[in-house]
Write a structure and sequence with these properties.
Layout (H helix, E strand, L loop, with lengths): L7 H16 L1 E5 L5 E3 L8 E5 L4 H13 L21 H25 L18 H17 L3 H14 L16
Parallel strand pairs: 1-3
Antiparallel strand pairs: 2-3
Helix pairs in contact: 1-2, 1-5, 2-3, 3-4, 3-5
Keywords: Elongation factor, Protein biosynthesis
Pfam families: EpmC
Protein name: Elongation factor P hydroxylase
């Protein structure tokens, strides 16, 4: 059986099938910058916008949404700060600490979708830093998530991706190679 190609419309449909009704949240192809907008006047649904219509951006923003608790999902961008590209080494270290869990979950979702994951330090114009500790932290977080089990929402989407893309439902450490980062 041939696997479906990775189309933006598919990830949007899968997310919305899983979360539009129970969480009043829909995934939206966005513009230059991703953003999460809670429902409010003139906007009946919470909206998770991913950047440029990129499939990987959709998975990354979805990972942030899956991690955010109920209170955070009532705030624009979950109430988090974002320091854009061009960060100092100190700012980059803080960014990486915040990004470990979302990127680990994104990696798990990428495996479920059958696409290659690439860790992102998202600081092309900033001070150069060693990304190896961050990569190792993301890998260790993947192992922790596998051991502890995913949240109900994360597991719902993971299984939906597995079914749609014909991937195994099993989630094992052997599916993740730290040298591929």
């Amino acid at each position: 059986m041939a696997q479906p190609e990775h189309q933006i419309e598919d990830i949007i449909a899968l997310f919305n099938q899983c979360f539009l009704q129970p969480y009043n949240t829909r995934l939206v192809k966005g513009g230059d910058e991703p953003i999460y907008l809670p429902a409010g006047p003139g906007q009946p649904n919470h909206e998770l916008h991913f950047a440029h219509g990129f499939y990987r951006s959709a998975l990354h923003e979805t990972a942030h949404w899956l991690i955010a608790g109920a209170a955070r999902r009532q705030q624009v961008d979950f109430g988090y700060w974002y320091e854009p590209d061009g960060r100092s080494a100190e700012q980059q270290m803080i960014f990486e600490q915040v990004e470990v869990k979302p990127q680990a979950l994104e990696w798990i979702l990428s495996v479920a979708a059958g696409i290659r994951f690439q860790v992102s330090v998202d600081n092309l114009n900033g001070e150069a830093t060693d990304s190896n500790p961050f990569k190792q932290a993301v890998y260790q977080q993947v192992l922790t998530l596998i051991q502890q089990g995913l949240s109900t929402r994360a597991e719902t989407l993971r299984l939906s991706l597995c079914h749609f893309y014909g991937q195994s439902e099993q989630l094992t450490p052997e599916q993740f190679d730290p040298l591929s980062l």
